[in-house]
Amino acid sequence: MNTKLIDPGGSGKPHCTGHPVLDTLVVRGSSLFEPYNGAISTPIYQSSTFRHPGLFESTGFDYSRVCNPTRAELERTIALIEHGKYGLAFSSGMGAISSLIKLYKPGDHLIVSEDLYGGTYRLFTEYYEPYGFAFSWVDTSNLALVEAALRPETKAVFIETPSNPMMKVSDIKGCAALIHRQGGRLIVDNTFLSPYFQNPLDLGADIVTHSGTKYLSGHNDTLSGFIVHSSDELEEPLRNIQKSEGASLAPFDAWLTLRGIKTLALRMKRCEQNAIRIARRLRSHERVEKVFFTGFEDHPQYALSCSQSRGFGGMISFYVKDPQDVPVVLKSVSLILFAESLGGVESLITYPLVQTHGAIPEAMRLAAGVTDRLLRLSVGIEDPEDLIADLEAAFRQCGTGGTL
Ligand code: PLP
């Protein structure tokens, strides 16, 4: 019996070279099957530690915080589908971001998208600013503002594109060119579009991060997070941070995420089709003032979206005309669930003001457009007419209603 593991070093190096169509890659992952017994589904190596054959000998796996075969398969797979050389899996998206920020040191300055996920804002301001890190919160969809915020000590630009929740699109190539001029890195949180619709590394980004909890896992049943990059220089420091911090992804959660990724292509297409339909209908509703969706041709960065992404995704934000509609809609939806997350098969509605962006100071939130009238929809894969009927029924509870 062959007792060699498929990736004895757990190096995270992709097995396949080149980039066959993503629709196939997501299903087959990195290893295609498990080599000893032919298991189609990657086994869950639920072991914290691994036996050494002898002194100074190793199977390549010593201790699961450092490396685990199930996680290694997931790390190779995410690297492959995100067009990177290396992938690292963490216990959550915040675990990934918190680990990668440790590449920097007190005195370093980072430019950050002004309307990014509130948890990232909290991590940076409450836990890293006190240690001497400096952050500038900038509308990164405007390259002139990014350029103006650059300082000699700026080491990175960190963007979410599309941004959360205002759906502003930042120019990935443009941001990369600006920060590369002074030897810094562009970091892109690619959670909203997933590697299925956007590959920032192909556009000049240096590091991609993900909340794998969202589209990658896709079923609202696990947390995970990723860092993907192609730098031989960064791989060792990042592995060392992962090993030292201990926010590595557990084997069962790695398996759930691997299973989710298999249907990423189908889910992303369906979420997007549903979102296009719902965004158009929401726009004409009498109780809705404005809809933010990157798939609208009159979205300010529509052309940019089309040039750097392969799709618009399933996220929609909208202002209702009357803030008093907000609690009524949130209480009245029944198929769409009022819950804080995104990217799963189930449609969710979120109130960014108190949920995802509750940690952001009021003045900054308002400047970014996160007001008491803003709702955010993560459109799932249900029948779109059922979702529309659910929203219509919720609006009817607010007053005169109207059809979507
Ligand atoms: N990045 C984005 C864009 C998010 O929306 C989130 C969570 O909502 C995170 C990062 C953090 O991910 P996690 O909740 O998996 O820690």
How are strands sequenced across the largest beta sheet?
A: 1-7-6-5-4-2-3
The small molecules bound here are: pyridoxal-5'-phosphate
Q: Compute the separation of the termini in Å.
A: 62 Å
Radius of gyration: 21 Å
- Please give the share of residues in helix: 25-40%
- Highest CATH level, the class of the largest domain: Alpha Beta
Element order: H for helix, E for strand: HHEHEHEHEHEHEEHHHEHEHEEHEH
The description of the largest β-sheet is: 7 strands, mixed
The number of helices is 14
Principal-axis shape equals globular
Low-confidence stretches: 1-19
Strand portion, in percent? Answer: 5-15%
Compute the number of structural domains: 2
Q: Helix- and strand-based class?
A: alpha/beta
Please name the CATH topology of the largest domain.
Aspartate Aminotransferase, domain 2
The whole-number mean of residue pLDDT values reads 93
CATH H-level superfamily title of the largest domain: Type I PLP-dependent aspartate aminotransferase-like (Major domain)
At CATH level 2, the architecture of the largest domain is: 3-Layer(aba) Sandwich
Strand elements, count? 12
Core attributes:
single chain, 404 residues, alpha/beta, Aspartate Aminotransferase, domain 2, Aspartate Aminotransferase, domain 1, 2 domains, seven-stranded mixed beta sheet, 14 helices, 34% helix, 14% strand, binds pyridoxal-5'-phosphate
Structural commentary:
- It is a single chain.
- With about 400 residues, this protein is of the alpha/beta class.
- It has 2 domains: about 20-260, Type I PLP-dependent aspartate aminotransferase-like (Major domain) (Aspartate Aminotransferase, domain 2, 3-Layer(aba) Sandwich); about 265-395, Alpha-Beta Complex (Aspartate Aminotransferase, domain 1), CATH 3.90.1150.
- The chain is built from 14 helices and 12 strands.
- It has helices at about 20-30, 70-80, 95-100, 120-130, 145-150, 170-180, 195, 230-245, 250-260, 265-285, 300-310, 325-330, 360-370, 385-395; strands at about 85-90, 110-115, 135-140, 155-160, 185-190, 205-210, 225-230, 290, 315-320, 335-340, 350, 375-380.
- A 7-stranded mixed β-sheet has the order 1-7-6-5-4-2-3, with helices on both faces.
- Helix 7 links the parallel strand 5 (about 185-190) and strand 6.
- The longest helix has 20 residues, at about 265-285.
- Mean pLDDT is about 95; it is low at about 1-20.
- The structure holds pyridoxal-5'-phosphate.
- Pyridoxal-5'-phosphate binds near residues 93, 94, 164 and 211.
